[in-house]
Amino acid sequence: MTDTNHVRTTRVAYDAGAERYAGWVGTKINAAMEDPIDRALLAAFVEMVHDRPGGTVADLGCGPGRVAAFLLSGGIEVVGIDVSTEMLIAASTAHPGLPLAQATLAALPFRDGSLRAAVSWYSIIHTPPDLLDLVWGELRRVVAQTGHLLIAFQAGGGEALHRDEIFGRPASLTSYRHAPTHVEQSLVEAGFRVHARVVRAPALAHETTPQAFVIASLDGPK
Ligand SMILES: C[S@@+](CC[C@H](N)C(=O)[O-])C[C@H]1O[C@@H](n2cnc3c(N)ncnc32)[C@H](O)[C@@H]1O
């Protein structure tokens, strides 16, 4: 497993906070954590996946498996991927039988072109902006030519926010507020076409910054 410094610190932090994180965010997509726009985008993504050839969709940085469960309930075959052992335990406890694997975003355990689609729901937020190209390169390798990506993240200007605790547990965790234009441009440089970019104002109690969503694929519009 590729384990660069930011990946190692992210894994250690989420291992320490997994149980409390899952208690806070829940184990399903829900109205306290996802605005109606966010849920509409997830529902649109399910429809887009059904419009393309079959196979497995990866929930990358799945945490407690909320997006994986959402996709599964939409009749989609899924696998959850996370670097944190404790998050994977939280996901399997909440969703028994959900296929899961431990891996990092930049080194995924899939054959070339084998994924039907992929979602990164707030999991690129711990990858420094200048390393996103490694994630996009890996997604370009594993996602089918017909497959879509859905990426969600807190938007900003690429700034780093460091914290030394997670849910009351000591931890070293850096989050990045990626610039939507940088995400979009770096996806294009990696060979993706961007179909949609949505940036909405903070609307939920825990949000302090705009939330961004990008849908991209390797081929053109349907
Ligand atoms: C903010 S949580 C989001 C979890 C989940 N997607 C959700 O919305 O509930 C970020 C998750 O991504 C995982 N993660 C962060 N960076 C990762 C990386 N480079 N490779 C694999 N997993 C990563 C963390 O372990 C954590 O479970």
Which keywords apply here?
222 residues, Rossmann fold, alpha/beta, binds S-adenosylmethionine, globular, 9 strands
Tell me what you see in this structure:
With about 220 residues, the protein is an alpha/beta fold. The chain has a single domain (about 5-215), classed as Vaccinia Virus protein VP39 (Rossmann fold), CATH 3.40.50.150. Helices cover about 35% and strands about 25% of the residues. It contains 6 helices and 9 strands, in the order ααβαβαββαβββαββ. It has helices spanning about 5-25, 35-50, 65-75, 85-95, 130-140, 180-190, and strands spanning about 55-60, 80, 100, 115-120, 150-155, 160-165, 170-175, 195-200, 210-215. The strands form 2 sheets. The chain has a 7-stranded mixed β-sheet with strand order 3-2-1-4-5-9-8, sandwiched between helices. Helix 1 (about 5-25) runs parallel beside helix 4. The longest helix is centred in the N-terminal third of the chain and has 21 residues, at about 5-25. The radius of gyration is 16 Å and the shape is globular. The N and C termini lie far apart (about 35 Å). The model has no long low-confidence stretch (mean pLDDT about 95). It binds S-adenosylmethionine. S-adenosylmethionine binds near residues 64, 82, 83 and 127.
